[in-house]
Specification:
The complex is a heterodimer.
Chain A (H helix, E strand, L loop, with lengths): L9 H12 L3 H32 L1 E2 L2 E2 L2 H8 L1 H34 L5 H8 L9 H10 L4 H6 L8 H25 L3 H9 L4 H29 L3 H6 L6 H12 L2 H28 L17 H29 L1 E3 L3 E4 L13 H30 L5 H9 L6 H12 L13 H11 L1 H15 L2 H8 L4 H30 L15 H11 L2 H28 L10
Antiparallel strand pairs in A: 1-2, 3-4
Helix pairs in contact in A: 2-13, 2-15, 2-16, 2-17, 4-8, 4-10, 4-14, 6-8, 6-14, 8-10, 10-13, 12-13, 13-17, 14-23, 15-16, 15-18, 15-19, 15-21, 15-22, 19-21, 20-21, 21-23, 22-23
Chain B lengths: L2 E10 L2 E11 L4 E5 L6 H9 L6 E6 L2 E2 L10 E4 L11 H11 L4 H14 L15 H13 L5 E5 L7 H18 L2 E6 L2 H7 L2 E6 L2 E6 L1 H6 L4 H6 L4 E3 L1 E3 L5 E3 L2 E2 L11 E4 L5 E3 L8 E11 L3 E8 L6 E6 L10 E5 L6 E3 L1
Parallel strand pairs in B: 3-8, 3-9, 6-7, 7-8
Antiparallel strand pairs in B: 1-2, 1-4, 4-5, 9-10, 11-15, 12-13, 13-14, 15-21, 16-20, 17-18, 17-20, 18-19
Helix pairs in contact in B: 2-3, 2-4, 3-4
The chains are: A mainly alpha, B alpha+beta.
Chain lengths: 567, 345
């Protein structure tokens, strides 16, 4: 290499130096906002994950992989891995195929009542994440209505029970992705294919399927990650069938085996991370398939297709409704299934902690939503609007949580908070710790929703504002926020819903003083108080539905109709 | 307010958008940056605006260096192609925005906003939101918003490209007369040569991150300095001229007289309107016979394409007014006036 000759005049050379000397008000503001987003991400996301890695490699003789070696040498460990992977793979395959057909029926047929059918299929998003297990037990359990009255002798506990419960649990997540993939299509290839004489099956294979394969891949990854780390259903309906998630819980909570828990955490984290990277790679290859000049595809009525899909959609929705609905029904009868006398007594919550878990949940969900909107919204603003050297890292950290299973992050929080040497120990056993966990566990999606809208808005408003003499803060408050608020309200609802229903992330943080509704459902079910557990589940569903309704009303009144609330 | 741009270079990764661009703009002038997409014209405008930072070189306004002044502090007005009116603010609030940033008093803001809306003839639309107005109205509000804080320089980034042809023409006249009336130094970026010729005092033709030619519209049309400018502005016949050992020039097999051949010339061209169409048996210097291979009727003019019999590439001539056009395949001749042929390096 040779030295470059000096470029430009004398003033030209002096400038870079002078440019660095003056610090503007806006530069300070952007760095302050960047720090306000980045520091909490480092403390509440990177630190817990680092602690899991540290703990898993911490042995009596110092740093080493002894814990891994010990775990990997145990036959029980591989038995659990086999159980988890087999269960998750089968569930994922079933869920994605069924959800694809359901999404296809919703988007590409003219079956009546598609709005209601969509809503029913999305119901699990409103319910605590173990409601499927609960419903299956009420229907097919030892004291379920089927065995009791039909004498069927079905044993729902175990492998198939978990698969069925998780199928219904993961179904809405897959449906949302696949439904979006099938929602928009260009009519012209369909017309061309028909003109060229392609059969319906051939049209499906050559025109419909290819543009949705990215959606299919994404749905597979999301389902697999959700299911392999699900805790509630496995605990409730697993019987003697153990999986990694329940083992982790038993090791940490039952026997205080933090090191072994951390090893399982790493074992769950690594495949999830790899899956996420693969998914990102695949999605990046997807280019714009629908161009501005596309003609939207509108399905025409077709008798046999509509009859077939109608049958399937209504049957599946019926099953979904039965599993969730039976929980609501059970909450109103005296003693399921022996005494079906209607009663409201389970809503008295006249046991030890009473309604406190529900109140805790609502408080936590409200705080989570409010803090979450601010943090995720600010992160999106910083990542999309500010150009400084740390924004790429900030974007990466912002979407990292989607690759972290809830239980793993929760375990990291326990390792971080229950150590008296850590200043954050003050948060241990507080509702605030659960709020923070919820905020960062759901950070990716909230961040992506906000940053997608910000990207769509584009930078021209910012530039116009800057040229008119506005600073960063004025532009944010006067221009960006008024455009962004409906999206942010949608993010608020998203956080609220997830905080109300999620279980596996926060299970490790639960202490007697911080019990939440979803945990109360688990404990009451465990104790055999199925009716009261059902009443708790019903309360959670009603709370989420009410929140959804109020926000939808606000949006309609404000004229913002195209904000998606269910995600 | 005079602007002096010297040796400005801007790179985006491996792509060089501007390469050592130098340019002086006189106070009160209307300058157009004209060029095909990717030539660097918008980047140059954004560097002047302060929205992009030049990697090298500097910009001075009335002799004062701008490199330490942010876009926010430059007091330049800008109008973008995508109106970019703030969608949640009314027309009046949009116009008031820059005045609020400058902490004007309320009554002053109100009177200035009223005056600006009157200036663009939209006083009755003050309380409308941008989506309730047409594209042309939005762009006029954007212009009022840019001018309200009394900027020292007005920057227009393809302001008319998103509009319908008719609206575009009206607004073109309106912007031009507003600029003269206010006497504000203005820079407009456009890829539309007609727009540039109609509006600008000075046109800067750009290509591949550099300046190709600077001149008045008439200069560029009558005396293009390079084949690129000749081709880009108006229509031009490039003649397939061969120069022999004695320095005589030939078009195909026919001798061609050219009034002035500049030294080192390698391109010879002339405008279609300078070619005279005549009978097939016409005699004289620089007359080329051939047959008609194309006729396009364009209303006020007719464009005739002829293939010369003795070789030398097709020639296009324009007939103005209501003169009768020859039929396809008809034999005709074209006279290429020697003084109208440009020679370019």
């Amino acid at each position: 290499m040779y030295a470059h000759p000096p470029i430009g005049s004398a003033t030209g050379q002096r400038q870079p130096h002078r440019r660095r000397q003056r610090i503007q008000g806006d530069t300070v503001t952007t760095w302050l906002l960047t720090a306000a987003v980045l520091l909490p991400l480092l403390i509440f996301l990177v630190m817990p994950l680092a602690l899991i890695l540290a703990r898993s490699t911490e042995t009596p003789t110092g740093f080493g992989f002894g814990n891994f070696a010990a775990a990997f040498l145990a036959a029980r460990f591989w038995h659990l891995v086999g159980n988890s992977v087999g269960m998750a793979a089968l569930t994922t395959a079933l869920t994605v195929v069924l959800a694809y057909a359901y999404a296809y029926g919703l988007q590409r047929s003219t079956v009546r009542g598609r709005g209601v059918l969509r809503f029913i299929a999305l119901m699990p998003l409103f319910a605590p994440s173990l409601v499927q297990g609960q419903g299956l037990i009420l229907l097919f359990g030892r004291n379920g209505v089927v065995n009791r009255y039909l004498g069927a002798g079905i044993d729902i506990y175990g492998f198939h029970g978990i698969v069925i419960a998780n199928l219904f649990y993961a179904f809405p997540y897959a449906l949302l992705i696949l439904s979006a993939a099938l929602a928009i299509a260009d009519a012209r290839p369909y017309e061309s294919a028909t003109v060229m004489g392609a059969s319906a099956w051939r049209r499906f294979r050559t025109v419909t399927l290819p543009p949705t394969r990215y959606g299919l891949a994404a749905a597979c990854f999301v389902c697999f990650t959700l299911v392999i780390t699900d805790f509630g259903n496995a605990m409730l309906i697993g019987g003697d069938f153990n999986v990694l998630a329940t083992e982790m819980y038993n090791q940490v909570i039952g026997q205080a085996q933090f090191a072994l828990g951390a090893v399982i955490g790493v074992v769950l984290l690594v495949p999830a991370m790899i899956a996420k990277i693969v998914e990102k790679r695949i999605v990046r290859r997807q280019t714009a398939l629908v161009l501005p000049q596309s003609i939207p595809y509108v399905p025409a009525p077709s008798r046999w297709r509509d009859l077939g899909f109608g049958l399937y959609l209504y049957l599946f929705a019926g099953a979904m409704l039965a599993i969730v609905g039976i929980v609501v029904v059970a909450s109103f009868v005296t003693l399921w299934p022996y005494n079906l006398q209607p009663t409201l007594k389970h809503y008295r919550f006249d046991f030890q902690e009473g309604l406190t878990p529900l109140r805790n949940s609502i408080l936590i969900a409200t705080l989570t939503a409010t803090v979450g909107v601010v943090m995720a919204g600010l992160a999106a603003v910083v990542a999309t609007k500010f150009r400084n050297p740390v924004t790429p890292a900030l974007s990466l950290l912002s979407i990292l949580p989607s690759a972290v299973p809830g239980m793993v992050l929760g375990l990291g929080y326990v390792l971080m908070l229950n150590n008296p040497a850590n200043p954050l120990h003050v948060l241990y056993g507080t509702l605030l710790s659960i709020v923070i966990l919820n905020v960062y566990y759901n950070h990716s999606q909230a961040f992506l929703i906000s940053s997608t809208t910000l990207t769509q808005i584009g930078s021209s408003f910012d530039e116009a504002s800057k040229m008119l003499g506005a600073g960063v803060l004025r532009t944010l408050l006067k221009v960006t926020l008024p455009i962004l608020w409906p999206t942010l309200l949608g993010v608020w609802v998203f956080y609220f819903m997830r905080a109300m229903v999620s279980l596996s992330a926060l299970i490790f943080l639960i202490t007697p003083s911080t019990k939440v509704a979803a945990v109360a459902v688990l404990q009451l079910s465990d104790r055999g108080a199925m009716n009261q557990a059902a009443a708790f589940s019903a309360c959670i569903m009603v709370t989420v539905a009410a929140c959804l309704l109020v926000v939808r009303l606000i949006l309609v009144m404000a004229g913002a109709k195209d904000v998606k609330l269910i995600r | 307010m005079a602007i002096s741009i010297s040796k400005v270079t801007k790179r985006f990764g491996s792509l060089t958008a501007l390469e050592g661009v130098s340019l002086d703009i006189d106070a009160g002038g209307f300058v157009c940056f004209l060029g095909p997409s990717g030539c660097g014209k918008t980047t140059l405008l954004r560097v002047i605006a302060g929205l992009e930072e030049a990697d090298e070189g500097h910009i001075q306004v009335n002799g004062r260096d701008l490199s330490l002044t942010t876009a926010k502090e430059r007091n330049f007005g800008i109008v973008f192609q995508s109106y970019s009116l703030f969608p949640t603010l009314t027309a009046a609030q949009n116009v008031a925005y820059g005045l609020e940033c400058r902490k004007w008093q309320k009554p002053e803001i109100a009177s200035r906003v009223a005056a600006m809306l009157k200036l663009v003839h939209l006083e009755q639309h003050a309380d409308k939101l941008p989506h309730q107005m047409s594209g042309g109205q939005q762009q006029r509000i954007a212009l009022a918003r840019a001018l309200a804080p009394r900027p020292s320089l007005l920057l227009l980034d393809e302001p008319l490209s998103a509009l319908d042809a008719k609206v575009r023409e009206d607004l073109r006249t309106e912007i031009k007369s507003l600029q003269k009336q206010l006497g504000i130094t203005t820079i407009m970026v456009t890829h539309d040569q007609e727009e540039a010729l109609a509006m600008a005092d000075v046109v800067v033709v750009m290509r591949d991150g550099g300046i190709e030619q600077i001149g008045t519209p008439a200069d560029l049309y009558e005396r293009p300095a390079t084949p690129f400018v000749a081709r880009f502005i108006g229509r031009m016949n490039f003649l397939d001229v061969r120069t022999d050992a004695e320095g005589r020039t030939w078009l195909g097999a026919a001798p061609l007289r050219i009034a002035a051949v500049s030294p080192g010339a390698s391109h010879f061209c002339l405008r279609p309107e300078h070619i005279e169409i005549g009978a097939p048996d016409l005699d004289g210097d620089n007359v080329v016979a051939g047959s008609v291979v194309g006729v396009s009727f364009l209303g006020n003019l007719t464009r005739v394409t002829m293939k010369p019999r003795d070789g030398g590439g097709e020639l296009v001539a324009e007939l103005h007014g209501r003169s009768a056009a020859p039929a396809l395949d008809a034999p005709i001749s074209m006279r290429l006036p020697p003084e109208a042929v440009h020679s370019l390096a």
